[in-house]
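Appendix B. One record, verbatim.
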Amino acid sequence: MMHLNNLPLIHSDQQAIVALCTPRGSGAIALIRISGHNALTVASSLARLSSVRSIAEVQTHTIHHGFVIDQRSDEQIDEVMFLVMKAPRTFTGEDTVEITCHNNPFIIQRIIDLAVQCGARTARPGEFTKRAFINGKMDLVQAEALNDMIHAQTELALKQSQAQMQGTLSRAVAGIELQLVAVLGYVEATFEFLDEEQRDLDFAAAIAKRINAIRQEISILKQHFALQKQVKQGVRVALVGSVNAGKSTLFNALVGSDRAIVTDIPGTTRDSIEASVYKDGAFWLFIDTAGMRQTDDIVEQKGIERSQAAVQEADVVLMVIDAARVMSAQESEIYQQLFAAAGEKGLVVFNKMDAASTNPSAPFLKEIDERAIFYISAKQADGLQGLQNAVEGRVQRLFAEAKSPYLLNQRQFTLLTEMQVDLEAIANTFGDGVHYELLAYHVKELLEKVSELTGKNVTEQVLDMVFGEFCVGK
């Protein structure tokens, strides 16, 4: 067995790292990964193969039955399978051994501890993927897409992140880079031509054409960023309105279970209640908010403030109104404000139609499309299907608008925005005549931003930020 004090010096970025790659909890099998410059040595020190061979000697990409052994005491820790993969044809680009053991936390920890004793160290969050990036197995955009794929909450988010893994955004960014290199080529060519020769070559027009093409490409990439929250996390449907309007009854009907307390006492729901439903390949988060009214109760007032915030954060807003009584002037003002805040995502729902004696109305209804007004009885389940169809229609429209192959995150969006601002400034300089030396400087700055976007030229701080969001085993 090789101990730490007998190991050759290995840089921390090359030293074998070890981590559990499957979720902790009940299950039959767990997978532990060891990857790094000395991964085969580490694995050989704790393995006893049934073939009586050393892991370092076996062929790459082969699976072997054996046992994990504590060689200090010759104790058998577990009967396992070893998957041996030698560099460079591995996920990280390094020698890698994956151990499939029984999913018992004590066994898992003993194997990890043995690996550390044999020369590995425990992996940091995202370190396996970080090494894959460093070793050229993927660019930074693809690495971020991998994390998005693991945490995808909707089928559309999964498909888009998988497309990113295949390089959809990377190819688009590479196209922008080529265009910028071409612009730089034109700019530097101007330094080589004499004035009389330059008259036959309209460098300014050629540069302006490519700059505009790049600006258009970036605009397309950014176009769907505002919709990515729904794509990644699912849809938020908020139920808001005055107290005792039947929001909780409607909430329970939409969710399909009695999550919210239903009574005739005004202000029963003092805080937001949430429930998730999986529909049509996405998670729908329904939010039952506190009733909107003026109150001196501090707890209830906080709930009302959260209701107002829910309108801003929601993707669909159901403004629930009690149809069984006449709306007060104060309530009318509240709903007017709600409608203004919700805009196109708002649907007006007159509830308790089973108890209504007259056709309900409100002053602000004149401003609302009739197709966005619904008359229902949540208690009797009357009119619910039409409302549900309308909500589903709004959600489908959201996802239809988001069907772009690009799934940007905030880091990528910020860099693209900075590039867009720089390109706008460059385009504006053409009106005052082209200063080619200054233009060359700005184009080189843009190329640096492209390199930061893909990770060709990126700081360690940015890498730590990106890979710090990954789980330890990835």
